[in-house]
Amino acid sequence: MSADAVVLGAGSSARMGGADKLLADLEGQPVIVWSLRAFEACPGIRSVVVTTSEDNEANIRQAVAQAGLTKVQAFVRGGASRAESVLHGLRSLNSEPPDYVAVHDGARPLVTPALIDDGLRMARVYGAAVAGVPATDTLKIVDRDRLVVRTPIRSSVWHAQTPQFARFADLLGAHERQTAMLDLYTDDVSVLEAEGLPVRVFEGSRENLKITTPDDLDTAARILRQRQTAASG
Question: What is the dihedral of CA 67, 69, 74, 78, to 10 degrees?
Answer without folding.
Answer: -50
